[in-house]
Prior knowledge:
With 343 residues, the chain is of the alpha/beta class.
Amino acid sequence: MLSYMGIKEIAEKAGVSKTTVSLALNGHKGVSEEMRLHIVALAKEMNYRVPGNRSYIQRQNGIIVFAKLSRHGLILNSDQNNFIVNYIEGIHHIVKEFGYSFEINTQRIETMDTFIAEINQKQPKGLIVLGTELKPEDILSLASLSVPYIVLDTYYEHIATDFVTMANISAVHTLVEHLVDKHHSDIMMVASGIATGNIAMRERGFRLAMEHYGLTISEQSFITVQPGFEGAYRDMLCYIHAKKHIPQALFCYNDVAAFGVIKALKDCGYAVPKDISIIGFDDLPMSLMMEPRLTSISVPTQRIGAIAARSLVEMLLSKSPHTIKSVLVQGKLVVRESVLDRK
Length: 343
C-alpha cells in the first residue's frame, strides 16, 4: 500500500483529493478513466508502487496496433532488431496495463495507400506507426486514417502530427561538446546517403554544435556513406583511397555505420583512437564488443515506446479536443575508449 504521505503528494500534484487518489490507485469506482490514467501516471513518475497486481481496467478495450513500416529496409534491418524489440516491450507494457490488446503489423511498402486502407477497414482503437524510414509525404498521408495514431522514431518540424522520438539535436550537441572537451578541433560527420527524419536532425544538430563551438563547418565536413555496415565500410574505403582529409574525430550517424568506418580505417592502417577518435549513436550491444569499445549515445528506446503508448491511451480516453504534441526524449552519452584526449 502507498503511505499516507505518498497519497498526499500525488493528490497535491494532481490537484485532487486524497480520496480520489486512493480510489484511482485501488481500481474503485467514482473516478473517470481519464483522471485514473493521469493519477496512475503520476504515481509511476514519483516511483510509488501502485497497490496490488490488479489491472485498473478489467474489461477489454479493443486493439492497439504497432505498425513497423519499412520502405527499403536499409535502416530498419536486422542490426536494429534490439531497438525494435525495446520499442515493442515499452508499448506492450502500457497497452496491457490499460486493458487493450496489442498487435504488430509489419509491412514493406512502396506507397501508404494499401496500409491506410487496411487500417481503416480493420478499425483498431489506435495505431502507433514506426516512422523510421517514412518520408514527410508518408507522414502527411496518415491524416487519411480514421483512427487515432502516433508516429514513433522520426520527427519533421513542419508536419503537425503527434511524434515521439529521440532528442537528436541535443544529443549531438552533447557528443560534440565531449570531443571539444577532449581537445578535438578538427571534427567531421559520417552521414547517411539515405535520409530519414532522425538522421536529418542529427546532421542539423552537428552543424549547430560546430557553429556553437566556433569550429569549421562546410559541405566538406561530411562523408556520405550508404546505410549498413557494408555500405559504410565500402564508402569509407573509397574516401580513404582517394586520399581525402582524415580529421581528428568522426561522428558517425549511427553505431552500425561506425562499425563499418572503424574496419575501413583499420584496414588502411589507422589506429582508433590513437590516429582518429570515433563516436557513434544508438549504443547498440555490439558497441561493448568492439575494439576499442565505442563511445556512443544511448537511446532510451523502451521508455520512448512507453511514452508513445501512454500518449495514445490518453488520446483515446480523453473527453477534451485533442491537442497535437511532439515529445523528444533525451538520451545519454556513454563514454568508452574510442575517443582519445588529444591534450
